């Protein structure tokens, strides 16, 4: 509660972290379960995508869908390219947009901001207007994996390059209390990749191109036991960069509460492991429920209240 008696405005800063980002779903579901509904949602990369689904009122349906994804499903949603990144993203985001609402950001009940990086200048860009799904996608262009995305005439890269856990953006939109979700804590050196599922190779003209891509992606995804794979190198590099940037930015503008999901065994493209990540997000909220409600200016839950003599 603020000094003027007005309840605190609660915001969430949903960080970048590729497949580990499914933990954001569990965090948001957990907050709703303890009676805390953030009025401000700031997201970077996968955090921008999950945040967009949440403020659009589709989180539970989205959670059900991602938990049905197998490694083969994820592979089939990837359209591989050599132009700007390994994964083009048209098939993945096209599939996503067909099944989810795409409201205007300004029409939403909650305040939302997607953090991206302008490719030409390297500047941090806060997107707070227009249809929400393109805004989220602009934040998800991880260098080396997804190509840049054009938004408002400018090429955008992943927001994690400049602001991996967007506490500052949440505060700028009016949050008095910020709950940050840092997916990159303690991940340096912990990245291991897993190969995509292999399908039987049938050398027919219709399948030759697909088979070649499968071989290429398997090569990019799996090391030889001694040497790291391509995705190992990209993932480890991103983890190192974002860990250093996050430490620096949050030292100057710390969140009131920081949640760090323990998902250090998740590889860059482990999007088929949503169930475990969602459960970890919910666990963190349940574990910190009393503190979260106190910062939000809410009374303790009955199970958290001290017993009377």
Automatic annotation (TrEMBL):
<dbReference type="GO" id="GO:0016787">
    <property type="term" value="F:hydrolase activity"/>
</dbReference>
<feature type="short sequence motif" description="GXSXG">
    <location>
        <begin position="43"/>
        <end position="47"/>
    </location>
</feature>
<feature type="short sequence motif" description="DGA/G">
    <location>
        <begin position="158"/>
        <end position="160"/>
    </location>
</feature>
<dbReference type="InterPro" id="IPR016035">
    <property type="entry name" value="Acyl_Trfase/lysoPLipase"/>
</dbReference>
<keyword id="KW-0442">Lipid degradation</keyword>
<dbReference type="InterPro" id="IPR050301">
    <property type="entry name" value="NTE"/>
</dbReference>
<protein>
    <submittedName>
        <fullName>Patatin</fullName>
    </submittedName>
</protein>
<feature type="domain" description="PNPLA">
    <location>
        <begin position="12"/>
        <end position="171"/>
    </location>
</feature>
<dbReference type="Pfam" id="PF01734">
    <property type="entry name" value="Patatin"/>
</dbReference>
<dbReference type="GO" id="GO:0016042">
    <property type="term" value="P:lipid catabolic process"/>
</dbReference>
<dbReference type="InterPro" id="IPR002641">
    <property type="entry name" value="PNPLA_dom"/>
</dbReference>
<keyword id="KW-0443">Lipid metabolism</keyword>
<feature type="active site" description="Nucleophile">
    <location>
        <position position="45"/>
    </location>
</feature>
<keyword id="KW-0378">Hydrolase</keyword>
<feature type="active site" description="Proton acceptor">
    <location>
        <position position="158"/>
    </location>
</feature>
